[in-house]
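U., I forgot to send this yesterday:
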Amino acid sequence: MRYPWVDVLNSLQHVTKPGLELLTLEPDAGAIRRVHISGVADQPKDVFDLMAALQSDPSWSSVELVSQTRNDDTGLPQVNGSIIPGLPTASRRSVSFSLIAEWGRP
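Result:
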């Protein structure tokens, strides 16, 4: 409960641009200031723009893309053209992604 959630959420809101939806944000049990961020985007470029924005923000460090999956026209995740069963998305956006980042501010 001592995690600086208000600051983290304000920072994420500042760097999240149209074309992106952040769906989950959870702390990493193994590292005090590391958070897992997942979401959906209109294009892969939107994910890389988010990563660049986080890396240029002094509040964040060690931004790493964990996964990126292209969704089909129905919003279902797919890999190599095959739909991945059991992994629905909350949006019709074309890319699902997951990042890990370190919150650097005290």
